[in-house]
Design goal:
Blueprint lengths: L8 E4 L6 H8 L3 H8 L12 E4 L27 E5 L5 E8 L3 E8 L6 H16 L8 E8 L2 H8 L25
Parallel strand pairs: 5-6
Antiparallel strand pairs: 1-2, 3-4, 4-6
Amino acid sequence: MKTVCSQAREYLVAAGDTIERVAQRFEVPTGQLAAVNRVDPVGPLSEGSRLVIPCAPSVASAPTLAVIAEATPNSSAIVPQTIGFSALGLPLEVYRLGNGSARIVFVGGIHGGYEWNTVLLAYSVLDYLTANPASIPPNTTVEIVPAANPDGVVEVVGHPGRFSVAEVAADTRPGRFNGNGV
């Protein structure tokens, strides 16, 4: 069984390494590896330098929406779908509720710094809608993306995923940027 990447890793460049060889070794696209590390995809790598190895975008590692039938209503019964990856390779996740043709999309934290509170708000809405599915009209699908910048969330709270207000750093400015400093 293939291990699913849940967090970006770091690799120490060895003699003779190229972006292409490292990408093949970790099963990530060469272009993604080069972009995340801001290196020329065909240029030489410096021995001893460090590369961030992002999670590979993979259909096999992207779970589909699933509701656990026996679970009590709460958002832990909803499995997010990975719709992309951040600059550091963290998954961008969407939770889908309902099954209608009309779509409502709620994007929480666009940046993890000043917008950490909207990440918490997105999770609160997810919890509410999961506990109260009748509040979603029958012709509607609600899609919730808790954090469009999980890199920034990690800078502010120290880990990806759910967090509490107590985990928010006093200085949230570093969370305003993604893994590329943008």
